[in-house]
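stuck on this:

***
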Amino acid sequence: MTESRLAFLQQLAADYQAHDQQVAQRADRYLNITPDTGPFLALLLQAVGARRILEIGTSTGYSTIWLADACQATGGHVTTVELNATRAALARANFAQVGLSECITQVPAPVADWLARTSLAPFDFVFLDADRSQYVELWPRLLPLVRPGGLVVVDNAVSHHEQLQSFTALVQATPGVTSVVVPTGKGEMLIWKASLATENN
């Protein structure tokens, strides 16, 4: 992460936090990840050597920049799905500002429909930070698109624990995956899809 890019992210975090504090309706807030979650995601991505990265829920692109910057070390690419046109436009401008547009593909589509038809899988790393009410529905479509040995990271695992109870139970009942919650930021659930070698042991 260059100093200029980090300074830009720090300013974005401050600006967007101020925005969210002034907006009464939750649907109008940007709801980006916390500043300490970005470096955590970047470390995880590089640790697994992820090259095909999927983000579900771009918002204004703050988290996407962390992912895209990290994937430059792995030769990877980020595909990020966001249906809200206003937020996607803000994200696009942010990507251009930090010189990461070529590392990122934006998808303006309902995520369930896109998952059903994408040809970009398998993904090495997935960051899930969208409408939590959809997660249970998305899981059977998402998991097959993650490569064996791949990692799924779910935001808000502590801050919105109750809203994720059904999803968490579904994950825990899924054969071939292991999950743990790390209390970074608003809580990150790490879901590891077992490699084929592990499954066969």
Remarks:
- The first helix runs from residue 3 to 22.
- The mean pLDDT is 93.
- Helices lie at 3-22, 37-47, 62-71, 85-97, 111-117, 135-142, 165-172, 196-200.
